[in-house]
């Protein structure tokens, strides 16, 4: 299946295939001329998929070099990124040498930012291997790393030349990581796709049991939602900010807990519950909508609040969120499942949102 991301002047396809990485090389060759390519993965994904990826690329005429990064959100830092850029340049990178990210959102974000900066930009390919990366982070061109002051505070908008989601790679994913990805799937349902939200409720258990048909439909529907939004507003001048639903609270939880302690999608799911409850409190949606979201998150076995994270730490962490500008917060407000709008609200709303975590 092919889903186009129709960004003006930089359109690219998302391939969603049932199998593993056998078709990767031909898909990349459709977009980029065969020649040298650098495949960047991490210490967990490389032993599982690096050989498959390089074999397919080689068979399609590419000459792959490889780089293996340390695994985990704690390594999504300027330090790791700088080391990667140096390594890419040391490999003899040219302006037309593609760099391919093979892994989850951490790998994709960091490698994308390196591809954006090395030689002022080389072609970039996303090969997401987590559910979260397939449904969200690999699509839309947000790349970057964390600052000590908050999540993703250093980065660039840099679109990939293609995204290749090989569904079979999800079979080796840790159960907790799979669940984390479902947090962003629910978000896409709440934003624009009531049928996707309903699928999360009715078939969440099958998704967690790795039913390929259910996961495939979730990835496809999520990618369509995200592709449509980023095509309309690539650089988050307006509409794209709705994708941050759940993230004001979610990022605060991630930062307050310490990067890497809680999974991104789990934090977003807690954020979705709290922010939708805040919307209901303000009267923008019915209380039943907030309850539906809470039930959907709960049914997937996700926590509704972060254990052992102090409220003060959350408020402090939310204060450093990059979405804040001129003492206002641009936030997504839920009207009903499948319909949200953006509003600028005062910063005093942040503690109110956070109060719905308890
Ligand atoms: N750029 C964006 O638009 C965007 C959107 C959402 C999230 N993000 C970022 O994405 C990151 C989270 O991504 P994530 O949840 O994919 O985390 P992750 O990249 O850390 O992956 C989770 C774990 O699964 C492992 N893994 C990956 N694929 C595997 C596979 N197929 N089999 C076995 N293990 C595998 C990874 O090595 C890691 O240990 C966060 O840093 C978040 O900020 C970015």
Low-confidence regions:
none
The CATH architecture of the largest domain comes to Up-down Bundle
The major pleated sheet works out as:
7 strands, mixed
Strand order of the largest sheet: 1-2-9-6-5-3-4
Please give a structural write-up.
With 358 residues, the chain is α/β, with parallel strands linked by helices. It folds into two domains: 2-172, Rossmann fold; 175-355, Up-down Bundle (Dehydroquinate synthase-like, alpha domain), CATH 1.20.1090. The protein contains 13 helices and twelve strands. It has helices at 24-31, 45-59, 78-90, 105-117, 131-137, 175-192, 194-208, 212-232, 247-257, 264-282, 287-299, 311-319, 349-355, and strands at 2-5, 12-17, 36-42, 63-69, 99-103, 124-128, 142-147, 150-157, 162-166, 324-325, 328-336, 339-346. The strands form three sheets. A seven-stranded mixed β-sheet has the order 1-2-9-6-5-3-4, with helices on both faces. Helix 6 (175-192) runs parallel beside helix 10 (264-282) and helix 10 packs across helix 13 (349-355). The longest helix is centred in the middle third of the chain and has 21 residues, at 212-232. It is globular and about 60 Å long. The N and C termini lie far apart (42 Å). It binds nicotinamide-adenine-dinucleotide. Nicotinamide-adenine-dinucleotide binds next to helix 2, helix 4, helix 5, strand 8 and helix 6.
């Amino acid at each position: 299946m092919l889903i186009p991301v129709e960004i003006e002047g930089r359109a690219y396809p998302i391939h969603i295939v049932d199998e593993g990485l056998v078709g990767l090389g031909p898909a990349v060759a459709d977009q980029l001329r065969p020649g040298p390519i650098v495949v960047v993965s991490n210490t967990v994904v490389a032993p599982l998929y690096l050989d498959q990826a390089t074999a397919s690329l080689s068979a399609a005429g590419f000459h792959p070099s490889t780089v293996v990064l340390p695994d985990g959100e704690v390594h999504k830092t300027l330090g790791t990124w700088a080391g990667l850029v140096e390594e890419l340049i040391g490999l003899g990178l040219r302006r037309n040498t593609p760099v391919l990210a093979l892994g989850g959102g951490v790998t994709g974000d960091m490698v994308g930012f390196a591809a954006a900066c090395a030689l002022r930009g080389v072609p970039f390919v996303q090969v997401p291997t987590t559910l979260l990366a397939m449904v969200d982070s690999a699509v839309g061109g947000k790349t970057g790393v964390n600052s000590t002051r908050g999540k993703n505070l250093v980065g660039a908008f840099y679109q990939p030349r293609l995204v290749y989601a090989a569904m079979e790679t999800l079979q080796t994913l840790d159960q907790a990581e799979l669940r984390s990805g479902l947090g962003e799937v629910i978000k896409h349902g709440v934003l624009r796709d009531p049928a996707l939200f309903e699928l999360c409720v009715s078939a969440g258990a099958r998704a967690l049991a790795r039913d390929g048909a259910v996961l495939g439909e979730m990835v496809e529907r999520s990618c369509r939602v995200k592709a449509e939004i980023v095509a309309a507003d690539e650089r988050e001048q307006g509409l794209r900010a709705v994708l941050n639903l759940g993230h004001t609270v979610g990022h605060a939880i991630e930062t307050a807990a310490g990067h890497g302690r809680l999974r991104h999608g789990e934090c977003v799911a807690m954020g979705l519950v709290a922010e939708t409850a805040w919307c209901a409190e303000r009267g923008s949606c019915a209380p039943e909508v907030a309850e539906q979201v809470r039930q959907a998150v709960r049914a997937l076995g996700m926590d509704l609040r972060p254990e052992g994270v102090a409220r003060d730490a959350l408020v402090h962490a939310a204060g450093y969120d990059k979405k804040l500008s001129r003492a206002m917060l641009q936030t997504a407000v839920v009207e009903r499942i499948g319909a949200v709008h953006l509003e600028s609200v005062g910063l005093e709303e942040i503690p109110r949102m956070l109060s719905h975590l308890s």
